[in-house]
Amino acid sequence: MVQRGDRFPINVDSLFYSSPEGEPKPFDLKTTTKSKKFVVVSVPGAFTPPCTNQHLPEYVKKVQSFATKGVDFIIILTQNDPFVLKAWKEKLGASSNKLIFVSDPQLELTKKLAPPIDLSDLGLGKRSSRLALIVNRSGIVEFVANENGGDVNVSTATKLLAKL
Question: Rounded to a whole number, what is the distance in angstroms from the first to the last CA of the chain?
């Protein structure tokens, strides 16, 4: 699991996003994040009640507050496919181009950040851990994780903004 002070793992090839036309496109993490200050919010799944009703709405609402603190963009990371992420982004009203919904279908980046959670008992399989981190020029400035997939306590937008 990464920690504050570690380098952010940029060498990941299996990430995708939904283009403005709605097509899945590879997401170039290395190029996109180069010399940037950004936040990564990893969630277990699109349209799941804790992620959709508790966790992400606050980030959508406070995206401008992050920008005011010098954050270039916020990456929302989960293993769901780009089509699902596009629909989820629309459902959340996340129209800001500072919110980038990124699919990690092989959990490649997820595994580099924190161990995936196993929600097989709920029929969901292995999922991204719930976490948030602040990265400034490839260095992890702050890292907060909550391995209990349903709880949304430490990785909230309010708590992360307080650390900027």
Answer: 21
Q: What is the chain written as a DSSP string?
A: ---TTSBP-------EEE-TTS-EEE--HHHHHTT-EEEEEE-S-TT-HIIIIIIHHHHHHTHHHHHHTT--EEEEEESS-HHHHHHHHHHHT---TTEEEEE-TT-HHHHHHSPPEE-GGGT--EEPPEEEEEEETTEEEEEEEE-STT--STT-HHHHHTT-
Rounded to 5°, angle at Cα 84 from 69 and 144: 35
Q: How far apart are CA 74 and CA 40, in angstroms?
A: 6
Question: In this structure, are strands 37-42 and 130-136 parallel, antiparallel, or unpaired?
Answer: antiparallel
> pLDDT tens, 40-82?
999 999 999 999 999 999 999 999 999 999 999 999 999 999 9
| Domain residue extents for the chain | 16-161
The β-bridge partners of 25 are 17
pLDDT, one tens digit per residue, over 113-148 is 998 888 888 888 888 889 999 999 989 999 988 756
Q: Which positions are catalytic?
A: 51
- CATH fold of 16-161, please? Glutaredoxin (3.40.30)
